Amino acid sequence: xxxxxxxxxxxxSQPIWRQPGxxxxxxxxxxxWETGTRTSRRRYPPGVHKHRSVAEMxxxxxxxxxxxx
Length: 69
Description:
- The protein is mainly α.
- The protein has one domain.
- It has helices spanning 9-12, 23-39, 54-68.
């Protein structure tokens, strides 16, 4: 990440706005999505999951939680 220098405190609070279509906007979005992907894991396997009862659903969700640990 680049180091930014400021001449005053007011400059520090200004957010960096990117214009639509700016290539830097797309790079920033891609970097943010990649960071999110690397730092968070799915809480459940992908797909549609059907259960016959609420109790069965809770058992399956508990097994997913145990697998994550």
